[in-house]
Amino acid sequence: MRQRPLLVAATLALAWAAGAASAQTYPLFRTVDAPMFTPQASFYNPVRDELVVIAYDGTNAQIYNAAGDLLRATAALPTPLGTEVDGAAYDGVTAVGVVVRHNCEVIELDPVTLAILSSRVLGGSGTIAAPTLCAGVDIGTGGTLFVADYFSARVLEYPRTGTTPVREFTTAVMGIDNLARAPGTDLLMIASNQGQFAIYRESGALVSGPSLLGTGIVLGAHTRTNMAGSDGLTFVGTSGRLWFCDHNDTVMSCYLQTRGCAAASDCPLPFIGCDVSTGLCQSAVCGDGRIQGGEECDDGGLVAGDGCSGGCVVEPGFVCTGEPSMCGTCMDDTAFGTDTGCTMTRPHCRTTGPRAPACEVCIDSSPDLGDLGCTPAAPFCLRNAMGVNVCVECNVDIDCDDRTECTTDICTANVCGHTSRPAGDVCSSGVCGGPGDDRCVECVTDAQCAPGFVCHPGRFCMPAGADAGPVPDAFFVLPDASIELPDAALVEPDAALPPLPDAAIPTVDAATPMRDAGRSDAGPGAPDAGMDAAASPDAGPIAGSFVGGAVCSASTSHSGSRAAWVSILVALGLVLARRRTNR
Fold this sequence. Notes:
By secondary structure, the chain is an alpha+beta fold. A four-stranded antiparallel sheet has the order 3-23-22-21, with no helix packed on it. Strands 4-5-6-7 form a four-stranded antiparallel sheet, with no helix packed on it. The chain has a four-stranded antiparallel sheet with strand order 8-9-10-11, with no helix packed on it. It is globular. Mean pLDDT is 74; it is low at 1-23, 213-217, 220-227, 470-497, 500-560 and 579-583.
């Protein structure tokens, strides 16, 4: 166990609100001895009106109610959590207890049986160093996890179920030993093991402190002088009381404080007013039939299991209305109207989740736009840190896609934002116009491109001095060259066609006299000169009949040549006509 120096003092200082003109006291309401027990971490379960206090060695726990009455004495946990337990919180969204150890192991527990549900070890990121000794944990308003690092005086923020931090801020509190969020606010109370306290917003802005005695919140007089330590720091339910323990006494003690006041303005929620006669802020009284302060319901009793818990919180599976509250289960029996057991303010009955069935404003019914009960302006149904479903603009960046490629879409705190991409950023058809012009346009001049870039002839931006290479140039020339290819092909028939018929016709004419040998109308017979009449196939009467066939054959041959020539000329004319048309 880490040893802590003793501080002798009558009071502890805590800062509560920014700009407080005078100290606001938290007078002692009750001192609770914890013999043979080392209280170190605690969380309040509002559903059962139970304050769970866990020992430093992680082996046992004690259960109190919001008034500090011991409900169940020291009992062994189903499974030991491991030593050096040093912080705890209740997650109302998932209805689990969260415990952190010095080695930064986060353990999730069933808040009733205290059985282990899961565990993981928190780490760092590329820019945020991992915590070295975790000594405080709580759930932020956005459902994220805030963890205090003892040695570095930092507070790190993690996704609810993640191990990589998304943000950090450094405090002025050395030796951070506890962390607690004030209910219904974004204020984180940070306490050291030297009696030093400060209030920071979740954003990391300092509100008040760090302080010792006399400023901010002052814890009232105790029965013991030893005030070392501040373990188990917890805001208790709807009462507005503050619980913390001092485990360095011979007899371990815990303290339950309430808030002092001079006027109603000194008593913010969950208090309901100031009793000037006692100088104490008034808390809502669970069981009086009136819904006040942070109460969700009040049925006039403190019996659990009837829909309204002993801590005046609606129990899982019930819906409560009116004063005194009437509680019953809701039934999902209509898609768009008011489900049975629900009201118009929360018309939809949710049948899944740790507190189902429960009436909600909206239901997460689809991965796309248009969850049940939401509008196009805020289409996504998301369960907030208080366990209530609400409609939001977005949950992740992609929900904000405005279908404009020249903007960067960001989801921040469930609200969409759109930032223009720099002028000259390459987009699908050119470049982005820049701030004020989120269009994707073709570049014309170098001025449209980002510094160090020039406008390429293809109308897109490229690095200045870069060699565009022959491929883009050829790409633009090739289509022009390909248009000339048909012209080159057409020229060849023009050159080839005229001589071919001319050369062929004399050949046919020269052959004709040979086949006409012996004709009676051939004149003096000069063409037949030199031929042997006896050897000629036309000799004799039989040859005479062949002569007739030869004449007929020659006539047919000439007619076919002319027809072929005409066909060629016609085809050539058609090609030439098409060529002119294509031009």
